Amino acid sequence: MARYSISRLVGPLFIWAVTVLAGLAVAGFRGADFETLLPVGLFLLAPALLTLLFLPVVQRDWGQAVILLIWTGFASVGALLGGPIGLWSLFLTVPIMGMLFFRGRVVEGFVLSAIALIGTYFGADYFGVLSSPLSEEALRLLSLIGIAATFALLIAGMIAATDNRAAIDASGSGSGIPWRQGVSGGLFEFDANNLLIDSNEKGRVHFGLQNLTNRPALSDLAADPSATAQILEAAHTARRTRSAKDARIALGPLASDFSHLDARFTPVEGGGLLLHTIDRSDEEVRLDALRQSHKAAEQEAADKTLFFAGVSHELRTPLNAIIGFSDMMRSRLFGPLPGKYAEYADLIHDSGQYMLDLIGDVLDLSKVEAGRYSLTLDTFDVSDVVRSSVKMIRPAADAADVAIEMDLPQDDVLLITADRKAVRQSLLNLLSNAVKFSPKGSHVRVAAMAQGGQMRLSVADQGPGMGADEIARIGQPYVQGAAGLSTEARGTGLGLALVRQLAELHGGQLELDSMQGRGTTAHLILPTEASR
After folding, report:
1. Any residues with CB less than 8 A from the CB of 312 and at least 6 apart, and which?
2. Secondary structure (3-state) at 489
3. Running DSSP on this structure, what letter comes out for residue 474?
4. What are phi and psi of 223, to 5 degrees?
5. Beta strand segments in 285-427, E
6. Segments of 420-488 assigned E as strands
7. How does pLDDT run across 1-11, given as a tens digit for each residue?
8. Which of 187, 414, 437, 522 is an S-S bond match for 382, by CB 3.0 to 4.6 Å?
């Protein structure tokens, strides 16, 4: 189908009508009566008027065929009406109309014209020339005006066809290899009625249109109803906004050859639409594999978290028993112990306590990661939590010959709304780390300060410190700095990870300031009013 069928038809039809009306006007000025002019005018204007009625469907193949048949019947009737004078030139109007569509229609027009011409000639010869209902003057007028209108239509049709060919050549879609074939992906052009005008080979492959002889509508591209709805919605949006609209269209399951297309709908002048499609099936398969892998990883992490939580809970009961019995042995409740056994009781107690602390961290961390750790918020004085935490950690600090200093306001009350247990646990972890990595004879300083709606708890030590790369990794589960890998100051790397998670649950954060050889300062920053 030619791109400009409607506009190409209107011009020649207008020329035909003007020529007919001009001929009638000249005949009227020369004295022809109204009874002679009326039937001649109606007959010659009839095919043009009928063609105008079929303009809304001229883009369809059957609409073009009907128009060619209208002019074929007009030529046959004119030839019969002409009698001895004859109007055989009217058969030229059929291929002329075909010229206004595209080259294939010109051939069809000549075939129809030849068949009608032969049928009319032999029919008139076999049955004899029928007497015409028109007068001799009307027949002569019909012949003259018909011949003039036919040649006017021929000239107008040639001009219209030449203009259209120039437009097609200018757009690069003339004969030879159309520019559409060089476009990456599929390219379609639709008219204002969403009927396909043209497409390239890649586009037809995308939608399985290789064997179609008719022109599908935009709604016929995809077999899947949801894909069709997506295409129509994107096309409507592009026309409404008068701008290009991008969409990823799911045509079918990932196992199919073309499952997903990136489509761009671009409105053009006259209500038409350009559709550019690029196959993204392989990319969608990879994305789907990544999504499945991510889902499996999340499920695995959740299962692992639940496993740790369950195992940690079950281990607490026997460990509490071990620590309890070792305490009884250390206290000599049932009598003195030989020297070595007393040392072993101390080792059992310390190891059991270490394991209990470790299991507590694992259990709490697994609850946080599983989203099952719920904060119990109340309002309290942070200074009380700092003093009680220092009191709890002081025996370990004394054993390590490390002094603990507190920097707290003397008169002001540091009120905060948070989970008291979580704040104490975080502070104990920070103090434990500071004492663990501080050399003998050094000191640890803990401070608390409220400022700008935030509570800042700082724990500074004089340990070996860390580099920037270590700081970036610290706070992740089971990750330790270089000092944490020494046998004297062993750890699991869970402490700071738990502190960071608890801080984020409150809407706060954990910051680490450290330099190698100059110690580390950990800042636990919490909002003074945690959201409930």
Report:
1. 359, 360, 362, 363, 366
2. coil
3. B
4. -80, -30
5. 377-381, 403-407, 415-419
6. 443-451, 454-460
7. 334 446 677 88
8. 414
